[in-house]
Amino acid sequence: MLQWARVPSDRVHLKAEEWEAYQQRFPTMVKKKIFL
Fold this sequence. Notes:
Blueprint (H helix, E strand, L loop, with lengths): L1 H24 L1 H5 L5
């Protein structure tokens, strides 16, 4: 049950890590403040 309760927060954490990696691959997006 505890693992089931952690699934949503784990997904959010994974998406945040993926977003950081995406921003590192496309630094122009950050510099020009392009919103996706």
